[in-house]
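Q: Can someone sanity-check these two? First one:
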Amino acid sequence: MIPLLAHSDADSVIAWRAGEPVSVRALLADASRQALTLPAQGPMVNLCGDRYRFAVSLVAALLRGHLSLLPPNALPDTLRRLAHQHPGLYGVTDDAGLDADAAGMPLHRVALEPRSAQIDAQIDARIDAGQPAAVMIPASQMAACLLTSGSTGSPTPHIKCWGTLVTNIRAEAQRLAEMLQRPSLHGLTLVATVPAQHSYGFESSVLLAMLGGCAFDAGRPFYPADIALALDRVPRPRALVTTPFHLNTLLRAGIPLPTTDLVLCATAPLSPQLAARAEQALGGTLVEIYGCTEAGQVATRRTVLSEVWHTFGELAVRTAPDDTFIVEGGHVAQATPLADVLQIEDPSHFRLLGRATDLIRVAGKRSSLGHLNYHLNSIAGVEDGAFWLPDDVDDGVVRPIAFVVAPGLDAGAIIAALRARLEAVFVPRRVVLLAALPREATGKLTVAALRQLAQAHV
């Protein structure tokens, strides 16, 4: 059995809602009340957009022994597929716009009811003289089913046991505390721009608060002004949990930003230049997290100081016989292949060379889409951009295409700038100027989205 929470005091703050603190005791009471309303059998699909209601639903499911499915979206096709794959599935949501009966499964609204003396008494008994650690969950209990983002193919489910999640998040909390030169993360408040259903948002906002002894903000600010407001209304020390896309947009806005002690960034490698700008603008330490849905969080790096990644705890990376790369140990019970190409210095340290699927060959020369995108987005005036290498070539000649958001620039100026940065074979024959790229809430561009852009514009 492993504690549900790392907080030592039931009256300590675990969440902030519209600038108001929420205690551990209140969260447990809300979750216990919701648990009483859930069906006898699971699993549950958690569709809550509000991070606090998401956490309440997650804890309620854990208390009932139900698995929580975390889908990439709430589209009808996604819900129908999940309902077909998981008999007995029910949903929880805080979105009044969702149908009461979604894809043939019952849908429960998350309503935060007034506190009840009976439930509070039960919570007090479970807490055991004010110690939240007395609320225990079996290590082997199936806690969450995460799905891959779909950026390299169809989403695939990955079930995580409670013990696996706890080991991973405790290692993250210890590493971050060391990098901040603090004894622990107690007192830190997390403001996240990524949804709680995404593996990174789930691990580094909700779970990091629960298992790292800190707190999270219930919102998910998107626009720069909203991010600045969300940071400003929570106390220091505070952290911003975000992505390179959101971070770049925030810094480009040119608005005053509150001092932020920690910036966590993941989902794509960050350039040292952007990391340095972020540390200067926010006045805190920027840490990148490397991981994947299959293995969880694997490593960190302080981007402004080194390009080398350092694995968490007992995790180790190695080269497999087929020249792919493996992570194992720690919370990764079985050796798990990585979708990236690494340069391994030792089992605990590596450089990231790019995704295996990003490696491309044009006219006999090799590069990676990540490398090309880095140079494209480093051009002054380019707000966002991505390369696309067609996979349905008729004449046998592959011609890179670039989709670019760059108000004030024309295609010729972008091509000229790329000629100064890239070998000639990788300079795109065509630049498609767009108002925005169809990124997901996490800032990712999926293969399907890029293919649809190519079909629509090329």
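And here is the second, same format, sequence then tokens:
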Amino acid sequence: MGLPARPFNITVVLTGSSETGGGFHQSVTNLRMLALSAPEHFRIQVLDVHGTFSDDIDELVSAGALNRADVLPASFELRTVNDRVVASPRWVYRVARFFLAISGTTVGMSPAARYLDNSETDLVYFLSPAPMATELQQKPFVSTFWDIAHRDSPEFPEVRTSRKFEERENYISLALTKAVLVVVDSAELVEKVRNIYGVRSEKFVTIPFAPARALASGAFDATNLPHEVRELDAPYVFYPAQLWAHKNHVRIAEALCILKEQGHDFHAVFVGKDHGAGASIRKRIEELGVGDRIHFLGYVADEAIPALYAHATALVMASYFGPTNIPPLEAFAMRTPVVASELHKAQLGKGAYYFDPDDPLDLARVILRSQEESSRVDLIKHGLKQLKDLRALTSQGETLLFDRLDRLSRRIS
């Protein structure tokens, strides 16, 4: 007869907001997995740092997967000037944070990190990349990483300017070595991290990305299609991506210009917040003369996304960052053909047609190819098969995660 298991307290930390897109939904997916599938001797507590996951947490509480008492308070008293510099949303403290980062000056522990370090939890699990993790001094933690894009593509301003490269490098190198476990979404990322940072492979658990829950079934409500899209009288390619330079919206515009010159009538629908690249993207679109064919919807409600996928003639995943992204998996679930930049081959297999992300002619070619009836049938079939295979890998990764967490519970509880 085995010894009774002592409860192992894991505090799951959620950061970000729904406006960050796929990362937000992946955090929700993994929270649901932990709440619904963790062994009985694991006590899952949840800290929603910015209060942006309340609806998903309430749903899990209503379903009995979480206890209301295990939803931790997210209001932190800003007791010192340091606290305000680290955490306050007021503009004066945002300016202070900017100049401190430029000067390379470090500040003390954030209120949320101090709260975690002083809590009764045994382990802290960050469900998304969170620099706060490296502040912890008392509690062991699990880190989540999605990419090391600053190393792959340092030419883009979002990972290079205003000391962003240095901030990412310092955080990643420290968090990788300090974490007791590191959760990533692909074997390719594990290999990159091992080669660059020298972290042993036994520290990693691979759990692939998954479509957002609302998209996994392939169902949609046509009435949620935005009015501007509903009125289009031409096929459109869809690209849900924030307006960053690395997302490569410009290449899609150039491909549409080529298709226009060839006599093909295609539009593009872009959704996502503008993070500074919008003006230059729009300028290039106007230079190309395709402004009437490209539709910027900005941030749209989650309810509209399934219909936007379902009515699209194809998803175009043009990003330079990877090696994985979530929208192609959502397109698979929605039975929408996928064309993607070449860096996604390992993730998407036969489920997509690929193009050189620097070559708009190549993109125009694969968009046309994806519209052939036999090609559409083939892409949809292989996309669903790839999604099934990734779900099997996800199940294996989750089993390994719980095994590793169980072993840790014997050492640190």
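A (reply): Looked at the second one. The chain has a mean pLDDT of 91. The first strand starts at residue 8 and ends at 14.
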